[in-house]
Amino acid sequence: MQSFLEETKTYQEVPFTWPKGYKADGVHVGLRKNPNKKDMGWLYSEVPAQAAGTYTTNQFQAAPTKLTKQTINQDHLLQGMVMNTAVANSVTGEQGMIDAKKMQKLAADKMGIDANLVGVASTGVIGENLPMDLIQKGVSQLELLDNDLVTEAILTTDTHPKTISTQIEIDGKTVTISGFCKGSGMIHPKMATMLGFVVTDAKIADGQLQPMLSQQVDKTFNQITVDGDTSTNDMVVTLANGMADNTSISIDDGDNFEKFTDAYNAVLTKLAQDIAEDGEGSTKLVEVNVENAATHADAQKVAKAIVGSNLVKAAIFGEDANWGRIIAAIGQTDAVVDIDHTSVWLNDLPLVDNSHSADFDETVMKEALTDKKITVLVDLNSGTATGQAWGCDLTYNYVRINATYRS
Amino acid sequence: MQSFLEETKTYQEVPFTWPKGYKADGVHVGLRKNPNKKDMGWLYSEVPAQAAGTYTTNQFQAAPTKLTKQTINQDHLLQGMVMNTAVANSVTGEQGMIDAKKMQKLAADKMGIDANLVGVASTGVIGENLPMDLIQKGVSQLELLDNDLVTEAILTTDTHPKTISTQIEIDGKTVTISGFCKGSGMIHPKMATMLGFVVTDAKIADGQLQPMLSQQVDKTFNQITVDGDTSTNDMVVTLANGMADNTSISIDDGDNFEKFTDAYNAVLTKLAQDIAEDGEGSTKLVEVNVENAATHADAQKVAKAIVGSNLVKAAIFGEDANWGRIIAAIGQTDAVVDIDHTSVWLNDLPLVDNSHSADFDETVMKEALTDKKITVLVDLNSGTATGQAWGCDLTYNYVRINATYRS
């Protein structure tokens, strides 16, 4: 069965690079013990950039998350972001907000810009206060450089940086979109995911960056799950500084808008997949495509229920084609399901045929399950809508990492 | 802090015994390979009993679950139940219903009663057909005895039978309520849990058994979670055969009704706790009590979110007082939460004090976490309602069991 997702690309994926006008840096200042782990970083645009953000829906929203949201909402402009790992500055009361604002001010002063133009992001253990002496020291060591060390500086239990750059041509001008993020655990975004940053030199028409981000986040970051837990520090921030000097991109201008949206979607999709694939303890990326659903929302819900099922995840880790768990996960949702004509494929092999076992060869299926990427395709036979979600398997290492996280 | 749950008991817990007029049996017939594992069983009442049931909300409801629901709904009477383990007879199409009905008829014939008085329950792998030759052989071996082997015969990955009996006096007559169930995995009931059976010799006023069961299930079985997955075969069935010859119990008769409800609630609560405590791979029972919530629904939601969090569960397995995860789980819900004045205790030790770390001694807390039962108490400071939920820790063994379930 052919995936419904293959289309002609109008963008090019290129090695990670900063779009025009962006500088960054990352340092190790001692927030984490391992001297090889960068633990503070920042990002800077030569001119103020249009900014948009999506933030966790967890009621215990962390101080840096609140502060960044407030800062962006003032005038939808940012010129810099400063980030740290190891300490989330979450559930830290008034002191938390004082510390977040101090971190914002320190970075702004060093960048030589107004504090109102700087966002702050923290990730790590909840409930501990930021060690402000180290934060101050870290900011003093950061420089405006061309390196990509900030993509390392935001990681926690991630095993590698997650980055991507895409480029398009708009009326003869090259526009670059670059994204990086961290993920790994407490990943079940309802608004955004842990920390994600997407920067572009595109010029975007006023007021159109936020709806574009929100729409794409719903299709990408909000469709991944590692463990069903929504973080207090979730945040995706996007900056567009206009330095590509392209004709301004607007929803009223169909072709360029679509081209940009495709390239932008590719960045968010890649980052979302990276987070799922590098979920804590993960050995396999699981992608679920749902088709012939009654509505897009139904398709998204079913896809997410499957990648979110501990039992499905453990079976995939065990390379066991236990399709009853996929069916049980589908049936747990309130999506419209044709319960007598639901079919499932695993890596293109028929697994369930019209709600009956598809008489598959267990040996062939077992072999397919050794792949590093497992694709599940579900046909709900209830309409024409499609949806997608990503997750990972549930492994001994997930338990180990989370049984010993603070030690 | 004193638990809000301590009250004077009006019932007595006694060693497991069948109420008046009930017979049962369990055999090994070969559905499971291990000859020491009973795999078929039944239950019989000398006279038709009032019957009520609650069933899975999973859209892929298994054939035996559908059949039992239909049978009970006809006239709310049952005289027998026949059960098997190893094969769930779920997602088995028309053949599944034919097999379930045949199993019902075989048992009814052997019991010498009408098939319309027999319920059927199956549990095990989804998607496989019942081996009817073995089912037939099993029924031929079952007898009407006083043993409790049926409580073993329904188990899958459970490590031990889950049983309880309570007794009360109603106007000089002894009334017995006995329950048994299986649980272990795919436990996140939205209606009932895997398989639970509660039988009593009480006489209950017409039409009052079903509302009593439904109400108690909401407070007990529906408040446990092992892994967030809702089974296709969930069912709780209760029988009341009236053979205790007590004054009929009715909601209009306050004292006796309350006494019976307390004893009935004790049975369901114990079974629910047993399932949580014996969740797949579990090493610890986790009980969460929520108080000062705006509504009972809020309290139940918050309690279940905490016991349902993989991260909280893994931290408890690791005996790590990572309270940020408890706070994050609370904040994920839409319950009314006073985010600046939420407090948490672990085994009576202050952990979070008004949304700040309670300055606890890590060594003392670590010691408390070595207990086999972990009690989390949450004060939401938002009202006066309370709620409870039960779960277990997330361990390497959960992953092992579920990576290899079909092998």
From TrEMBL, chains A, B:
Substrate binds at T156, K182, T193, E280, N402, S407. GO terms for biological process: L-arginine biosynthetic process; ornithine biosynthetic process. Pfam families: ArgJ. Its EC number is 2.3.1.35, 2.3.1.1. One of its GO terms (molecular function) is L-glutamate N-acetyltransferase activity, acting on acetyl-L-ornithine as donor. It comes from the Bacteria. Signal peptide: none annotated. The keyword Transferase applies. It is found in: Cytoplasm. The record marks T123, G124 as: Involved in the stabilization of negative charge on the oxyanion by the formation of the oxyanion hole. Belongs to the ArgJ family. Catalyzes two activities which are involved in the cyclic version of arginine biosynthesis: the synthesis of N-acetylglutamate from glutamate and acetyl-CoA as the acetyl donor, and of ornithine by transacetylation between N(2)-acetylornithine and glutamate. Heterotetramer of two alpha and two beta chains. This is Arginine biosynthesis bifunctional protein ArgJ. The gene is argJ.
